[in-house]
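Help needed: design a sequence for this.
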């Protein structure tokens, strides 16, 4: 608010000085000019009396001649004061109207309002820097989950688009540069409620500057940063960024998984998908030679992924036609053939040997070109396996109508992974494990999850066995000294013999990662666990770890659950167990 006041003061400096001068001259004149009272005695106004008279006269209020009737000399001076004050107030009024149109003043008001709103946040939120397509998808995904967010971006048009969208909660955003530490602090970087920072701008230098600010101003806060170059990615790793995502590398890795391990690719897509997503059908990519149209930073990652998959590749790229022979030289390597062309015409694709290839990747940075390439390829080979790159979310309807075997949207991949990592600790480790495992492991895990929940995307949640996050569980572990196993956390609170629809995916203990720990695995204080399952299973597990009575009942089979309903359920269960034991006797 201070900045708003000082901006207004600077803009109104001249009219305010004029008003002060008019008041000063008017008061001095009234004090100096003598008057005559009712008895004919001379008198002089005091400074206070003159100030009082000028105040109601110069502001056009009018009250009369006080404390005595004026002389003609005094009235002449007052008339001059009135004319001067009208000029002064007109000047000030014009300056005020101009101030309301001043961009700097408007920005100061917006900034002050934003700072107050962020300062008043009392619920967890994420700070998002950069509102491109990836940023917008992250915002939408967080909003669907009821999570607050604060956005910083330099593009006012994108922020206006965000403001026009409907959200479950008010969207907080500011048109500012994320490289400024003051901006990040104002946006809540150092607030206790800030759960993480996402640097998703298209400028690697900006993202690196944000990563450095997070590292220095709030060490330990998770930061996920986007990077397009290996050099900046290495710098972010040196800084200690929690997660660095290169959209081109991510696309290449997803493509490699789709080609070499389709079940692993399907599992990752399912895990990081938006709420309500369903398991996609298995689409194995055929082995053999591939054609890749487009060989820039993105295309090079695609070609590298295909080569790692053990496939030969033909690159179709207009680089040589555009006078860039160095890129043509980069494409010359074992198992790689380079052709000049764009791939949008039938002749170029025929010359590239599309009749003998197994699949085609349309991977240019232009959606129109990618659609034209895919259509031309399907005309020549109707059954060809086609993978297309979608650059703009706005073109989704066209790509859905195309019906490619796989449509890769790099911004969607990055956005989904960002949200999954931020919302669920240990998710980054889980994704790394899926990538490292073979397709059979992924297929087995998909089958286990489907047996629990069907094709609907499961919920994921983390648990730290500590006094802060699991006080009820810690209390029971200390008082009963009974071993607590993962199976105990999967029990139903209503019927401890029933298992909820949940599955332990990961355990971190003393820095060591254990994937898919069994139900008999004993839990220790300090363990971190990642679960997948339904919303009901998540709620029941939370009751167990937070409420000592519930934990005692579920784990040890005794204790009151606290409420009337729980006591009735407990009593019914005890009677059932008693009758069962008598029957055995």
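Sure. Designed sequence:
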């Amino acid at each position: 608010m201070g900045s708003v006041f000082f901006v207004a003061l600077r803009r109104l400096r001249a009219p305010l000085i004029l008003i002060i001068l008019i008041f000063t001259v008017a008061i001095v004149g009234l004090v100096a000019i003598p008057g005559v009272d009712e008895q004919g005695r001379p008198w002089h106004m005091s400074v206070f009396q003159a100030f009082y008279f000028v105040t109601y006269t110069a502001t056009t209020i009018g009250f009369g001649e006080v404390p005595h009737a004026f002389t003609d000399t005094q009235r002449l001076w007052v008339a001059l004061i009135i004319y001067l004050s009208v000029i002064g107030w007109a000047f000030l009024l014009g300056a005020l109207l101009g101030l309301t149109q001043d961009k700097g003043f408007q920005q100061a008001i917006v900034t002050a309002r934003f700072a107050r709103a962020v300062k008043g946040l009392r619920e967890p939120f994420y700070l998002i820097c950069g509102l491109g397509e990836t940023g917008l998808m992250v915002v939408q995904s967080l909003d669907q989950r009821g999570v607050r967010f604060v956005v910083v971006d330099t593009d006012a048009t994108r922020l206006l688009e965000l403001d026009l969208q409907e959200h479950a909660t008010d969207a907080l955003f500011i048109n500012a540069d994320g490289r400024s530490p003051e901006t990040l602090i104002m946006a809540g970087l150092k607030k206790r409620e800030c759960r993480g920072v996402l640097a998703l701008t298209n400028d690697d230098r900006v993202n690196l500057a944000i990563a450095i600010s997070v590292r220095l101003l709030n060490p330990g806060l998770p930061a996920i940063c986007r990077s397009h170059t290996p050099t900046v990615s290495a710098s972010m790793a040196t800084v200690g960024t929690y997660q660095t995502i290169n959209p081109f590398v991510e696309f290449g890795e997803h493509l490699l998984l789709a080609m070499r391990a389709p079940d692993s690719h399907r599992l990752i897509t399912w895990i990081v998908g938006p709420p309500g997503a369903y398991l996609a059908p298995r689409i194995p990519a055929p082995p053999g030679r591939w054609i890749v149209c487009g060989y820039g930073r993105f295309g090079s990652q695609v070609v590298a992924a295909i080569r790692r998959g053990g496939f030969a590749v033909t690159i179709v790229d207009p680089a040589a036609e555009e006078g860039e022979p160095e890129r043509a030289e980069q494409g010359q390597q074992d198992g790689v053939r380079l052709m000049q062309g764009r791939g949008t015409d039938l002749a170029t694709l025929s010359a590239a040997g599309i009749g003998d290839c197994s699949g085609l990747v349309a991977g240019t940075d232009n959606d129109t070109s990618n659609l034209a390439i895919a259509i031309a390829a399907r005309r020549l080979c109707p059954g060809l396996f086609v993978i297309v790159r979608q650059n703009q979310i706005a073109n989704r309807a066209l790509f859905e109508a195309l019906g490619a075997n796989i449509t890769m949207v790099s911004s969607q991949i990055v956005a989904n992974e960002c949200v999954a990592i931020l919302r669920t600790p240990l998710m980054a480790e889980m994704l790394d494990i899926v990538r490292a495992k073979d397709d059979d492991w992924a297929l087995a895990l998909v089958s286990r999850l489907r047996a629990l929940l069907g094709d609907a995307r499961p919920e994921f949640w983390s648990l730290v066995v500590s006094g802060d996050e699991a006080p009820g569980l810690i209390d029971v572990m200390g008082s009963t000294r009974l071993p607590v196993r993962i199976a105990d956390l999967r029990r139903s609170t209503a019927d401890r013999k029933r298992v909820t629809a949940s599955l332990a995916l990961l355990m971190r203990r003393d820095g060591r990662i254990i994937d898919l720990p069994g139900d008999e695995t004993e839990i220790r204080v300090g363990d971190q666990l990642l679960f997948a399952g339904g919303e009901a299973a998540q709620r029941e597990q939370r009751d167990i770890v937070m409420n000592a009575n519930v934990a005692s009942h579920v784990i040890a089979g005794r204790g009151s659950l606290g409420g009337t309903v729980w006591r009735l359920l407990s009593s019914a269960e005890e009677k059932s167990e008693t009758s069962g034991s008598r029957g055995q006797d």
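The chain has 25 helices and 18 strands.
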